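User: For my dataset I need records formatted as: sequence, then structure tokens, nothing else. Please produce one.
Assistant:
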Amino acid sequence: MSYEPVVRQVIHGHFWTLLPQLAHTVSPEHAPRDEPWDTTLEDPAMGTLRLTGWIRARPGHDTLFVLLHGLGGNHDSRYVRTMARACDRAGVSYMRFNMRGADRSGEDVYHAGTTEDLRAMLRSPALARFRRIHVIGFSLGGHILIRWATEPDRDPRVAAIATVCAPLDLAYGADAIQRPLGWPYQWHVLRGLKEMYRAAALRQRPLPTSVERVDAIRTILEWDDEVIVPRFGFPSRQEYYATQAAGPRLGSLEIPTLLIAAEADPVVTADQLRPWVAQASDAVQVAWTGGGHIGFPHLTIDGTDEGPLEPQILAWLLRT
């Protein structure tokens, strides 16, 4: 058996995961012109939480695109900025939304099933004028979005959703990123999560673990054990993964959903996704592509136009 194709695929996935981020570091993607937005949420443990974002609400437009970042990211993440600029060029209204504490304001931390934040955002009076809403979730943001879409009493204005490199099996993903080649990505995610935690500690939020202990955490497994489980009252990390995973919910999705996945994604691997994708409902369209984790050369969603990710997602959502 020749391992050359496998090696090429591994290199391809890492290359397209790292290249866009390196390019952004050298020449950052500028955020388009938008304005600060906020709303509040009542949390049983933390009290009133402030949720923030940045919005471009065009006069006379009744359709809004909401962009949801991944784990450890925020409204300023490279892929969120890129998608926002695509929305701006297309002339549509959009919001770059932060999960609780993601803006490093010290409000709280969130987990893979924190759908309350999406609900609070959609209830915001500032969004009342929009009659049609599309949500685009990147990485863990896509996971949270799938969970929200399968829960009762969802906002009927959300007409369709799209996810990009969303994990579907939390236990599998947390274990898989422990591979040596996954360590740089794990470090990057944890750096963002620790920034959130330190900010919340500075505001004297009732957090379960000392900042010193959190700073010493080296794996997602430890983060979930020592932060997520006690903060949100899960019996164990295993129970958290089992009860919050989005994969088992794909079969019950009713809202039109575009699920974009990369064959060589080194973070959310194809092996993690395939068993769940096979059970997806007819509402789900799966687009497998080349590239890495939220980084692609070009892709084709419908087998027609090949090109950059962002305008193809917008076109799919607008015609759904």
